[in-house]
Predict the structure.
Amino acid sequence: MHLHKYEKVWLLFGIAALAVFLSIVGVTAFSHGHTPAGGMDVIDPELVDETAPFNHPGVTQVDNDTYEVVMVAEAFSYTPSSIKVPAGKEILFTLTSKDVVHSFTIIDTKVNMMVVPGRITHKSYTFQKPGKYLVLCNEYCGTGHHFMQTEIEVYEP
Ligand SMILES: [Cu+2]
């Protein structure tokens, strides 16, 4: 195969530019200590049901002002299917997925978690107002993706 001289020059320029940009991204990520949003915890996705805390999903009170919500996402539902938490308290969400990538997006809040199989994702949030909050999956996860939702009931403590 014959390549014109200019074609070779531009090919080499393109490859060199790619190497430079990827190196910049890599070096800055390591030097700033970047980690995936939600933490570095890992889990075997085939053993989610046997692994604590996912063997008992649900709401637990950690202390006076903190509650933990443990949930499992799988196509096309969240377990447990409904949860109740108090307003004005810190809620620590802990999630993982059993199959594919899902999300845990609480509408009208800042909570928008990636739920990735093999990883445990954490996020802290405090609901200021009581009410019912819709939770949606916004990562396309299969044919039933648009049915994947749940609800969080936030009550006056
Ligand atoms: Cu999903």
User: Anything to note?
Assistant: The pocket of copper (II) ion is lined by residues 76, 102, 137, 139, 141, 145, 148 (CB under 6 Å).
